[in-house]
Specification:
By secondary structure, the protein is mostly helical. Among the domains are: 53 residues, no CATH class; 35 residues, no CATH class. The protein contains 6 helices and 2 strands, in the order ββαααααα. The chain has a two-stranded antiparallel sheet. α5 packs antiparallel against α6.
Length: 144
């Protein structure tokens, strides 16, 4: 169960239940940051828990850009590390070629999912085949 930020959460060892309590303010009322924000914008803006202000989005985007710049800088400063990673791992195309030489076909999850969907949509498939395709597809979709 999701609880508001700033809540006090504990595990009751006698009952085995998790308990949550909103923090108390000085006046005996408990206002979370979210509740204060809603009161401030009440009527003026639709403050949905899943929506963000433009300032919040700009800050998040700025942080993403900063981290991307830092990552590029690390790549320029430490090209040996990237080369070391390339030595440890091979590209998927090369792996596919090697498996084909061993008479084994390697498929990505995406390729398998496309095959299962086409089997499910096929009119030639029996009901049992369609059910099996749905079970297999559920496994791959669950990973995503």
């Amino acid at each position: 169960q999701a609880v508001p930020a700033g809540s006090h959460v504990r595990l009751n060892l006698q009952t085995g239940e998790r308990e949550a309590k909103l923090p108390d303010s000085e006046n005996g009322r408990s206002d979370t940051r979210e509740e204060r924000r809603r009161k401030r914008y009440r009527g003026a803006v639709d403050v949905d828990a899943n929506s963000f202000t433009s300032q919040e989005l700009k800050k998040a985007l700025a942080k993403m850009k900063e981290s991307e710049k830092a990552e590029r800088k690390v790549r320029r400063e430490f090209p040996a590390q990237e080369e070391e990673v390339r030595k440890k791992f091979r590209p998927i195309e090369q792996l596919k070629e090697e498996f084909e030489k061993l008479n084994m076909k390697m498929e990505t999850d995406y390729e398998i999912m496309v095959k299962l969907i086409s089997k499910f949509n096929s009119s030639a498939s029996t009901l049992d085949e369609k059910v099996a395709a749905l079970y297999d597809l559920e496994y791959y979709v669950h990973q995503v």
